[in-house]
Amino acid sequence: MRLVPALLAPGCLLLVGSGEPTSADWAFALVAALALLPGGCLPLSVVFVEAALVVVAGAVADAPPAVVKVAACLAMVELAARRPPKAALFGGAALALAYLVVYLECGECADAVGLGYLLVVLVAAPLLLGWWLRALSQNLAQAQARAREAEERKELAALGARLAERAELAREVHDLVAHHVASMALRAGVAREVLPDLDPRVRTVLDDVHGSATTALVDLRRLVAVLRDPASVTDPTRSLLVEPAELPAALASVVERSGRNGLLLESQVDPEVAGLDALRGLAVLRVVQEGLTNVAKHAGVGARARVSVALADDAVLVEISDGGDGAPAPERLLVDSGYGIEGLRERLALLGGTVTAGPEGRGWRLRATVPTDAARVARR
């Protein structure tokens, strides 16, 4: 952009000047245009150069070429726009003095009125234009700063509300849910100790209840810690209860625990799922947990089920199916929240995945697709 005056100077000299331009006119025009180049960082120095050029051109010729005057005006505008008013007034005084010298030595203007008009047009007007541009720029910067501050206040208010909600939820989980789970673990442990002659099958059930309750209590405590951690609000990966590299082991643990509940399971887990990122790995784990929980509740003890977790090119395919050949638990023993599948759909929708569930023969089949970051998995 700063080369534009140098490119336009010849045309301006030919169109605006009176008569045929001399070699001196061409030289002055070129120097005046090139002197504008460092105006962005040295605007006051550029004005001094242009003022000196006005005096020299006025001494060599009858009057400074129009290109020199235009260049001096542009330098004055840039000085007033980029520097404080004191520097702009200093530069304006230097330029006005240059025109006064030309007037006194060359008699360019016929009278004082003409000189005043010259100073208004070539000094005062560029000075005022530069100040207007400076004020406009400052107002724009202030408006942008106010907008940023308003956005930051809005974000801080939203963050504060989320932190308050999470703190309240953490208190409820700790005081209500964790209390009951701890009570379950304690009672199951006490029952094992005070009833030494229990049937081995009953003792196995109590051991499983105690182990499951203890594991759930540990997870609840970790969840409460995450809910109370402000950093987890902006970093979702901090809320995970399983590390990505531990995903195959976590899936095997879920399958093993379901097997202890009486299911006859066949599982096939692709070890490459350890390369998934944290959010997708957790989604796969939750799909398997929900699917096996539904099999245990509805297909019943002794049901045959199959778990498949396969890594394709651009997605993880999860499938849990059963034949419906078990002994379902009595309805009075079932506790159904009714939000398991819907919760999975919401979780996977955020990742671009899908969940389908429905009857198949006498049994039930749950299928889920979790899109992957193929490049990340390939690097592992």
Automatic annotation (TrEMBL):
One of its GO terms (molecular function) is protein dimerization activity. Its EC number is 2.7.13.3. It is an enzyme of class 2 (transferase). It holds the Pfam family HATPase_c. InterPro entries: HATPase_C_sf, HATPase_dom, Sensor_HK_TwoCompSys, Sig_transdc_His_kin_sub3_dim/P. Keywords: ATP-binding, Coiled coil, Kinase, Membrane, Nucleotide-binding, Phosphoprotein, Transferase, Transmembrane, Transmembrane helix, Two-component regulatory system. The chain crosses the membrane at residues 29-56, 63-81, 87-106, 113-133. It catalyses: ATP + protein L-histidine = ADP + protein N-phospho-L-histidine. This is histidine kinase. It comes from the Bacteria. Residues 133-160 form a coiled coil. Residues 165-230 form the Signal transduction histidine kinase subgroup 3 dimerisation and phosphoacceptor domain. One of its GO terms (cellular component) is membrane. CDD domains: HATPase_UhpB-NarQ-NarX-like. Residues 284-372 form the Histidine kinase/HSP90-like ATPase domain.
